[in-house]
Amino acid sequence: MAETYTHTHLQDAPATTQWSWNIVVLGSGESGVGAALLGKQRGYHVFVSDGGKIKDHYKQELIDNGIEFEEGRHTEERILMADEIVKSPGIPEKNEMVKKIRAKEIPIISEIELAYRFKGESKIVAVTGSNGKSTTTSLIYYICQKAGLDCALVGNIGYSFAKQVAENPKPLYVAEISSFQLDDIKDFKADVAVLLNITEDHLDRYDYSFQKYIDSKFKIVQNQHEQDNFIYNLDDEVITNKLKTILLTSNLLPFTMKQEPKKGAYIKGDQMMLKVNEERVSMNIYDFAQTGKHNQYNTMAAGVAAMTMDIRKEKIREAVETFESLEHRMEPVAVVRGVEFINDSKATNINSTWFALESMTKPVILILGGTDKGNDYSILESLVKEKVKTIVCMGVDNTKIHAAFDKIVPIVDTASAHDAVQASFDAAEKGDVVLLSPACASFDLFKNYEDRGKQFKEAVKAL
C-alpha cells in the first residue's frame, strides 16, 4: 500500500511571552547558534550544550545575547529537563546523549524546523540531493537576485536559516537542505521542493541502509499541499522508483534529458526547454556559464524553480548565462606552464567525482583520497580509463584506491596538499588538467573540504 504524504497541521508553538518553554540546543555550530538566537528572541529559555569546544566567535554571540551554554560536556540532568531539543545536523542518532533523550521521549527537532515555526508568511524554496545542492541553490538565489526579489540564501550553505529569521527576515528563503536536516523535521514545508538526485552517500549515518537515506531525502515533500511544487530528476531511477510507492498532493515538475514531459524541463539537441503553467522558455545550452552534463541538470532544476515564482524569462536567461561557479566546486585556480588546475574539493563522494570527470575534455591528473565513506571506486573505472593519465592519492590510507586502479593507471601516494600538487605538476604535460576531486571526506588530513581546497590553491600558487 502506498504511503500518503500530506500536510500535517502546525501545532501551536509555545507562548513566546513567557520563560516557560525550555529548549536545549545540542551543538554550537552555525545552525546550533542560529537556533539559540531565534529561540531566545521568541521567549524560550535556551541552554546550549556542546560536547566539544565552542568556536570563539560563536561563544561571543551566545555571551552577547545572554544565552547560557556549556562546552566540553553534556550535563545530563539539565538536558533531560528540556521540553524540546534542537539537535545540530552533525550529531548522529547513535550519540549517547541522543539515545537518552529518545528514551525519555523528549521531542527532537532540527534548526530548520524551528526556523519554519517562526517564518510567518514567507515562502521557502528548498533544494536537496546527493550532488549539486550548493550549485543549484546558489543559482536559484542568483536568479532571484537578478529578478529583484528580496530573498536570503540559507541552510546548509552559508547562513543559518534560524538566524536569518531572527535577525533579518525575508519574504523568500532559498535553502540548501541536507538529509541530516530533514531527519528531524515535523511541520517544515517547502513551497518549492527540489530533489536533484539520490546516490549512496552518508550511509554510515543510516545504518548502512540505502533505503533509509532515500526516505530521508523524500521528507522534503512530506508536508506539501496541492499548490506547492515538487521539482525532481526524472532520469534518476532511485527517485522514480520511490515515487511509484507514495502518493503526492504537490504539483509535479520533472526535469530530464531523456524524455519530453508536458511540464517541467527537458533538453533536446542543444536546447533547454522550460514549461510551467502556460509559460515556456527556450535556451541554448552552449550559452550556459556552467558546463558539463551535471550542470545542465542543475540549470534545468533552477530554471523550473524560477518559473514557479513567475520570474521573467529574460531574467532567468541572463542569470544562467552569467552565473559563476562556487568556491571548491569545479573552481578554476590557475594555469601554470600550460597545466590547468581545478579545485573540486567539495566532491566528497564518488558520484561528485564521476560528474567532474565526465565534464573534462583534456587529459587529467586526478587527485583522489581522504576519509573513505564506503566508496565503490568501480563506478569511476571507465572514466579513469578514458580520461585519467595519473592518479595522485592524498590521504592517510589509500589502500582501496590502489586496489581499484593499480592495473589501470600509475598511482602516486602523497600525504599533504603541497606534495599532491607537486606530484601532479611533475606528472602533467602542457595541455593537461590537474583535478582535485577527492571522492572522500577530508577529515584525515584537513579540518574540512574548504580547508583542503584552500591548501590546494595555496600550493598551486606557490609553484
TrEMBL record:
Pathway where this protein functions: Cell wall biogenesis; peptidoglycan biosynthesis
Catalytic activity: UDP-N-acetyl-alpha-D-muramoyl-L-alanine + D-glutamate + ATP = UDP-N-acetyl-alpha-D-muramoyl-L-alanyl-D-glutamate + ADP + phosphate + H(+)
Domain Mur ligase C-terminal: from-to ranges: 328-440
Pfam families: Mur_ligase_C, Mur_ligase_M, MurD_N
Enzyme superclass (EC): ligase
Domain of life the protein comes from: Bacteria
Chain ranges passing through the membrane: none
Keyword terms: ATP-binding, Cell cycle, Cell division, Cell shape, Cell wall biogenesis/degradation, Cytoplasm, Ligase, Nucleotide-binding, Peptidoglycan synthesis
InterPro entries membership: Mur-like_cat_sf, Mur_ligase_C, Mur_ligase_C_dom_sf, Mur_ligase_cen, MurD
Sequence similarity: Belongs to the MurCDEF family.
The protein's name in its UniProt record: UDP-N-acetylmuramoylalanine--D-glutamate ligase
Species name: Ilyomonas limi
Organism taxonomic ancestry: Bacteria, Pseudomonadati, Bacteroidota, Chitinophagia, Chitinophagales
